[in-house]
């Protein structure tokens, strides 16, 4: 190793030698500033030593190369490299440009750079001396050995005359005198598929010796040193002498194993993707970022009726149903503009005219910083759409059947109730006409049976309306105290006959007026009261209403109907709410009833969002309870309870002129008899037109109007009468 010395410590004769050299010799400090420059440097650059002292070396480099030169020496310094060779252009004081080649040695103490010693030659004027050529050769060898690429040089006979360390490792150069014809076999040079040795005549080096230039010739190298082997890209060039004759060849080999493995993995994944898509029951398509179709699988063609080559690009549009083309294309363009995922239903028409319904779903394909395309699936939903159409048609038929059933029940209930009302009314009148004792039992049986039959018809009609969803709850102002007391009084006559007490207990904290549906609430309470009274042979039946909770807008009121009747077995508590169901088989025979009342009651309570609860003990009684959320009235205008309406049996219609308008003779007859019994003076009209004429002639106090009548119904007739 050469001893490290400083220039200023050498004998004067050594300095004289340096000063007399035709090469530029200079020394820089660790920061790259001039400490010393010889006379040749002064002469070539035009700067004096004093002018150069402390000047950074990069100030002399032409501006366009300053960055590269500084980086070169920064890398040398950072990597603690002592010796380098570099060529670049410098500018003299007078502005001339010199091309220099310089050998640089950096002196380090540990990690610190203490000095830089440089010998630079003016390459534009001076021929390189042999010792400088040797230095360059050494520098070149150093550079080659730091390269990742393998470099091989052969003479015209194929003999190896030069290589770098990467080549010796890659090609296992244990026999440098090996003939070129045996290279492929000895060095394990296979084709990329690893199936056969490369032919001697196909070797890039041999072709380069014949004057050809070969680029990116990919091979697989497998030998003792490479282990599992390497994928390599070979580039070869012929070397020529001054007469342009081939004097040898150079081969540069790059390890492309990582890239090749990635390509093979990508190809493998592509094959998997294709195999998976071809086996998929769904059609699959892939587009670029502009929505241009680049791939479709076999199932896509089967579903859409479009061969793959016709579906690519924008050809898929022509397979759409004519009615869908504009809409689908517009939706697709909008999705691409907004880079959104899409989902839609589209129709395709096959060449034979078959229409196929499809469900299309697309997702974006994104890299970290870019949208690269879309992938979509196509599902054949023709069977589902046909099924939906069938369901729709079935629903329409069912709704029509339900409407017809409702009309039938409504018509039949009207037609049946008309004679039943007559039977009940006539029975009632006959019972008030002091019948003979032997007639009394028959009349009571007739009235009881008719009332039960009428209750059955009403229950069936109500249940049918509930099942059809034809009942909606209303909200109107209701005096809850008065309503419950009125219900209690209405059951009083029946209770007296059975020697049963009927009571009503209403919490005083409940406001007089609430918002509720009085008709449906009355129906619930009446059903429960009627049920309780029916199965209570003695004792009492009580209506109870308690305020259990409240807030600013709502009242939570718990209703109970409690009786001391026959009670219900524990295992029957749930079944009694089922339609046409009673606790025991003999119940209907002994007490009558349809088994629909409690079922209707439960459905009405559920419409309020609540539920009904039952507690019962056999021979001790039952209690039905439910809680309703009722809204407050903003301003309670009914601060005081209204005066209860009197008993209708004590009402007198003496002298009142009443017109009965009904197309049923029986209804006219029964109504007229009751009105006459109450002291009224009734007249009868068979239809609306006749009623209008009679109203014109007589000033009636009351008109009782039927709704359904021939020629002119009750609503139209009423409207005409009001105009009078």
How many beta-strand segments? 26
* Unreliably modeled segments: 1-11, 580-585, 588-592, 636-649
Derived structural class: alpha+beta
Average pLDDT figure: 82
Biggest sheet architecture: 7 strands, mixed
- What's the helical proportion of residues? 25-40%
Overall spatial form: elongated
Ends distance? 136 Å
Beta content comes to: 25-35%
Summed up, the helix count is 22
Rg calc: 55 Å
Brief account:
The chain has 724 residues and is of the alpha+beta class. Helix content is 40%, strand content 27%.
Molecular structure report:
With 724 residues, this protein is of the alpha+beta class. 40% of the residues lie in helices and 27% in strands. It is built from 22 helices and 26 strands. A hairpin with a 5-residue loop joins strand 14 and strand 15.
Give a topology summary.
Blueprint: H1 12-20, E1 24-29, E2 34-37, H2 39-45, H3 49-52, H4 63-78, E3 83-91, E4 97-109, E5 112-122, H5 130-146, E6 150-155, E7 160-163, H6 165-171, H7 183-187, E8 189-190, H8 204-209, E9 214-221, E10 230-240, E11 246-255, H9 257-279, E12 283-288, E13 293-296, H10 298-304, H11 308-311, H12 325-338, E14 342-349, E15 355-367, E16 370-380, H13 382-432, H14 437-467, E17 476-479, H15 480-490, H16 492-498, E18 500-506, E19 513-516, H17 518-534, E20 539-550, E21 554-563, H18 585-591, H19 597-607, E22 613-617, E23 621-632, E24 657-661, H20 665-677, E25 681-685, H21 688-697, E26 702-705, H22 714-723
Parallel strand pairs: 18-20, 24-25, 24-26
Antiparallel strand pairs: 1-2, 1-5, 3-4, 4-5, 6-7, 6-11, 8-9, 9-10, 10-11, 12-13, 12-16, 14-15, 15-16, 17-19, 19-23, 20-21, 21-23, 22-23
Helix pairs in contact: 13-14, 13-20, 14-19, 17-19, 21-22
């Amino acid at each position: 190793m050469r001893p490290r010395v400083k220039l200023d410590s050498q004998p004067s004769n050594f300095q004289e030698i340096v000063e007399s050299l035709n090469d530029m010799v200079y020394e820089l400090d660790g920061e790259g500033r001039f400490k010393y420059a010889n006379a040749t440097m002064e002469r070539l650059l035009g700067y004096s030593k004093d002018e150069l002292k402390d000047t950074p070396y990069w100030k002399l480099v032409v501006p366009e190369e300053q960055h590269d030169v500084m980086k070169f020496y920064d890398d040398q310094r950072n990597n603690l490299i002592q010796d380098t060779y570099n060529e670049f252009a410098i500018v003299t004081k007078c502005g001339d440009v010199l091309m220099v080649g310089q050998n640089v040695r950096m002196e380090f103490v540990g990690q610190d750079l203490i000095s830089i010693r440089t010998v630079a030659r003016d390459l534009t004027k001076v021929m390189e001396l042999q010792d400088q050529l040797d230095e360059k050769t050494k520098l070149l060898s150093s550079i080659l050995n730091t390269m990742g690429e393998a470099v091989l040089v052969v003479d015209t006979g194929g003999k190896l005359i030069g290589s770098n360390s990467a080549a010796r490792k890659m090609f296992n150069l244990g026999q440098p005198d090996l003939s070129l014809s045996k290279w492929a076999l000895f060095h394990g040079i296979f084709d990329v598929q690893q199936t056969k040795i490369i032919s001697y005549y196909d070797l890039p080096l041999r072709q380069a010796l014949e004057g050809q230039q070969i680029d990116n010739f990919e091979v697989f190298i497998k030998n003792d040193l490479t282990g599992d082997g390497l994928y390599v890209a070979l580039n070869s060039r012929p070397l020529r002498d001054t007469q342009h004759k081939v004097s040898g060849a150079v081969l540069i080999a790059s390890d492309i194993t990582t890239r090749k493995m990635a390509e093979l993995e990508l190809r493998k994944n592509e094959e998997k993707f294709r195999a998976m898509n071809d086996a998929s029951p769904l059609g699959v398509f892939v587009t670029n970022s502009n929505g241009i179709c680049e791939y479709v699988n076999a199932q896509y063609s089967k579903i859409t009726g479009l061969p793959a080559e016709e579906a690519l690009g924008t050809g898929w549009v022509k397979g759409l149903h004519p009615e869908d083309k504009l809409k689908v294309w517009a939706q697709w363009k909008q999705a691409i503009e907004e880079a959104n995922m899409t989902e839609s239903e589209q129709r395709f028409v096959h060449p034979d005219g078959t229409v196929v319904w499809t469900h299309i779903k697309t997702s974006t394909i994104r890299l970290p910083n870019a949208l690269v395309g879309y992938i979509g699936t196509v599902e054949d939903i023709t069977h589902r759409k046909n099924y939906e159409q069938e369901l729709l048609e079935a629903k329409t038929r069912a709704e029509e059947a339900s409407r017809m059933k409702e009309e039938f029940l409504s018509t039949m209930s009207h037609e049946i109730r008309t004679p039943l009302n007559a039977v009940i009314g006539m029975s009632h009148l006959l019972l008030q006409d002091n019948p003979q004792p032997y007639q009394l039992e028959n009349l009571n049986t007739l009235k009881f049976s008719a009332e039960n039959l009428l209750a059955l018809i009403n229950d069936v009609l109500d249940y049918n309306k509930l099942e059809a969803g034809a009942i909606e709850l209303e909200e109107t102002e209701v005096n809850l105290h008065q309503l419950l007391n009125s219900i209690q009084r209405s059951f009083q006559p029946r209770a007296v006959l059975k020697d049963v007490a009927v009571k009503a207990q209403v919490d005083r904290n409940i406001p007089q007026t609430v918002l509720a549906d009085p008709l449906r609430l009355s129906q619930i309470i009446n059903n429960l009261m009627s049920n309780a009274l029916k199965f209570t042979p003695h004792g009492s039946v009580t209506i109870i209403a308690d305020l259990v909770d409240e807030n600013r807008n709502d009242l939570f009121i718990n209703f109970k109907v409690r009786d001391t009747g026959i009670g219900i077995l524990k295992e029957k508590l749930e079944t009694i709410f089922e339609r046409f169901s009673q606790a025991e088989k003999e119940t209907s025979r002994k007490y009558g009833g349809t088994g629909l009342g409690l079922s209707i009651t439960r459905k009405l309570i559920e419409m309020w969002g609540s539920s009904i609860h039952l507690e019962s003990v056999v021979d001790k009684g039952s209690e039905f309870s439910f809680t309703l959320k009722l809204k407050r009235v903003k301003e309670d205008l009914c601060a005081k309870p209204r005066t209860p309406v009197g008993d209708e049996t004590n009402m007198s219609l003496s002298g009142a002129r009443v017109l009965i308008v009904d197309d049923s003779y029986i209804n006219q007859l029964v109504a007229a008899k009751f009105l006459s019994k109450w002291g009224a003076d009734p007249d009868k009209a068979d239809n609306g037109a006749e009623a209008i004429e009679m109203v014109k002639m007589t000033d009636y106090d009351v008109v009782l109007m039927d709704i359904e009548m021939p020629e002119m119904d009750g609503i139209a007739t009423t409207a005409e009468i009001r105009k009078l």
